[in-house]
């Protein structure tokens, strides 16, 4: 028993040490600096909550926060809908289900920056050419407006992450006892009734996990935002992560950027933990 405890802590120590050095210490230092006027160069001066007061006065920060919230709401709904739909498709008795799983998951293996540039080419060149061909003006200049730029980011995020969320739902769908579905079918329940009363309640844990992942992912998107729209036009598609980066490294207001980061962390933590709490209460145990 003592050897097991020793080996447990021996393997766990590097992880805890990395977490402490990479996450905990920078967070503590950043919290302290957020109460100063540090710009990355000169000595700091304690200014209290002034940075936190100033950040809510910034129209650009408020606009980026609102844009991020809208993007997160739409993306979370769409990703979970697509992920569950794809999972239901590939768990049916079709010969190509393994091939389809691979195809649907492959976009998640592409890096965010590369993915953004790929879709930028599709939206600008391919959509414009198609628009000219069929006479649809709405397909031209797809990333030149706030509305189309918003949906461009949603499409990109959904295409990349739908396969990943699909894998989570597959793991729970394949654990549903076949006897339950067979008994419901014998009793006369149609496909929709079996899904509503058996399948959906039993995959509720997957919904909790995927909601947590999609919320945290959607809130903190940076690289796709940078490569697809660059925050344009006129910063109207700029998400919070990009706005914080610009505050820190373009405007050299490190302390202000750190205070924005802390507020952002609190918002994401509250939203994620709240949805996890309420979703956990709806879960059904087998």
Automatic annotation (TrEMBL):
Segments forming domain ABC transmembrane type-1: 65-275
Superkingdom per UniProt: Bacteria
InterPro entries recorded: MetI-like (IPR000515), MetI-like_sf (IPR035906), UgpAE/MalFG_permease (IPR050809)
A GO cellular component entry from the record: plasma membrane
GO BP terms, alphabetized: transmembrane transport
Compartment(s): Cell membrane
Keyword terms: Cell membrane, Membrane, Transmembrane, Transmembrane helix, Transport
Any Pfam family: BPD_transp_1
Coiled coil: none
Bilayer topology term: Multi-pass membrane protein
Residues annotated as transmembrane: 7-29, 65-91, 103-130, 150-172, 198-219, 261-278
PANTHER family in alphabetical order: BLL4140 PROTEIN
Family: Belongs to the binding-protein-dependent transport system permease family.
Name under which the protein is recorded: Sugar ABC transporter permease
């Amino acid at each position: 028993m003592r050897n097991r405890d020793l080996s447990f802590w021996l393997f766990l120590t590097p992880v805890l040490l990395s977490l402490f050095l990479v996450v905990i210490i920078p967070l503590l230092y950043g919290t302290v600096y957020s109460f100063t006027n540090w710009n990355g160069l000169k000595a700091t001066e304690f200014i209290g909550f002034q940075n936190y007061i100033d950040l809510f006065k910034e129209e650009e920060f408020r606009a980026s926060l609102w844009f991020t919230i809208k993007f997160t709401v739409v993306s979370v709904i769409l990703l979970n809908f697509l992920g569950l739909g794809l999972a239901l498709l590939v768990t049916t008795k079709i010969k190509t289900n393994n091939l389809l799983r691979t195809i649907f998951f492959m976009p998640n293996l592409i890096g965010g920056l590369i993915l953004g540039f790929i879709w930028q080419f599709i939206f600008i060149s391919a959509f414009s050419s198609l628009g000219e061909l069929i006479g649809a003006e709405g397909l031209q200049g797809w990333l030149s407006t706030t509305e189309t730029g918003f949906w461009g980011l949603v499409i990109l995020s959904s295409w990349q992450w739908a396969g990943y969320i699909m894998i989570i739902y597959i793991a729970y769908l394949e654990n549903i006892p076949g006897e339950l579905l067979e008994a419901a079918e014998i009793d006369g329940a149609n496909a929709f009734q079996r899904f509503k009363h058996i399948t959906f309640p039993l995959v509720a844990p997957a919904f909790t996990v995927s909601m947590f992942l999609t919320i945290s992912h959607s809130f903190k998107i940076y690289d796709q935002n940078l490569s697809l729209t660059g925050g344009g036009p006129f910063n109207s598609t700029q998400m919070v992560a990009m706005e914080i980066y610009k505050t820190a490294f373009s405007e050299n207001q490190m302390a202000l950027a750190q205070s924005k980061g802390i507020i952002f962390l609190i918002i994401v933590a509250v939203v994620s933990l709240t949805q996890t709490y309420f979703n956990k209460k709806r879960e059904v145990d087998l």
